[in-house]
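Researcher: I'm preparing a figure for a lab meeting and need a structural model of a single chain. I don't have an experimental structure, so a prediction will have to do for now. The sequence is pasted below. Please return the structure as tokens so I can convert it later.
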Amino acid sequence: MNDFDYLLHREVKPGYEFDKLIPKTNCKATFLGKGTTDFSVDEMAVMVKKYYSQMSKVAEHFSNKPLQRTCNEIHKWCYDHFQYKADKAIQYLRSPSCSWLSRFDGIDCKSYSIVASCILTNLGIKHYIRRIKQPGFLPDLWTHVYIVVPKNQKNSKLKEGYYVIDGTVATLQESAYIQNSDLFMDMEHYGLNGAHPGMKGVMDKPLVAGVSLNDIKGLFSGSWNFSCIGGSLNMNHFNQTLANVAMAFDDMFYKANMSVRYGDDALLDNVNALFRISLQIKSHSELKAAGGWKSSCSRAAVNAYKDLGIYYHNIVYNGFQQWLRYYFDISTTTDSVPNNTFDIPISFDVLSDITQVQPLKVIKLTPKANTTEVKQFVVTEYISANHSQESFDLGQFLQGITSVVASFTNNNTGNNNDNPGNNVDPSTGVPYNQGNNVMKAGVGSGIAGFLIFSAGAAILFSEMKDKPAKPKEKTDDEPEPSTETTSKSKK
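Model: Understood. Here is the structure written out token by token.
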């Protein structure tokens, strides 16, 4: 154990209650080659953009609280649940799932910052990734990175005060530094330069929850609340399947909404997963129910499974598809897949009753020119009702939705006249002059599309020596300075 590891060592809480909230990963690593500090920080932003949803359920523990308390509790959670261990010659950028898997072995300041940034992103809280040069410790090099959250969330100006989230230390005190460089985690910028050219997405209030599992069961009291036990299948098999399927669709709808909010590259994948899996389960459940079951318990179980398949298929292919086409121009084709390859644990044998299905596949998706806001798609009581699935009225559905996924500051023509290389003042929307050096996360920083990541990956790059740079003098009107120098990060 080196000096840093010894000084920053802590007793880590087991955190078993969070295991079920964080997706599993094998922490597969991808080697990216040599990189500078800017490369490191920019790739941290890419990791947040790609994997923020891994912290969606954990983020719920910090929602609906004052900003200061939220930041303090996120800091404490990170400090308490992840051991510290400095990276050596190989620097690791871990997804939150990978950090959770590695929490007892230890992570360093970059991975702490990714975890905290992902939680803040799910909560819609604006923040910066800050790197610093420290007095008395390799002062010519960038040696530490952490998160700062502006107290003023409207204009994001740090000179009006901010909170610090640094999971490497137990206190809320910011480390002393002689120079800093801040990367603004601008989800609006993701929307502008990500999957939706020309749109300037604005963060809105958190997403609302849909109908509960008990509500869904209650909708089908005639067949779903059966009580018999016996035969090869019974109510227990169905209830377990219902819980897993409902949770999976809830997660898929959440991911689709968040992809719209941030304009990320996973939007098509998330949309197509809904079309594919809902059709697969409908087909598999219908074939299963047609199997000539002798036991009344087994027949009740497979018939309930069939109802479940039809229920989600109608929601996706009626309600969700209308919602999607209302806000977006889409181009589609069809795919051909087996009906049993959905990755949701069920209690009905997926190795039988197999056939090919042809789900709808979206190949292009662009916002309509007149789209100014996108309301959340959520499974409400209206869309759950049987009659609503058969004759779905989008207008009536949208009247019952209050949560906006994203709104936009200009009509969306699909043409992006902004120079993606310019930095934009978050308080005014006006580009900074080239002389100002606040960095912003997004495609404009030259990072998106540069690499292909595996799910839950830990990203590696070779350390590269920093080139000492004379700190730039800042004025009161300028943002915190950012110098284009390289880094040797230790903390």
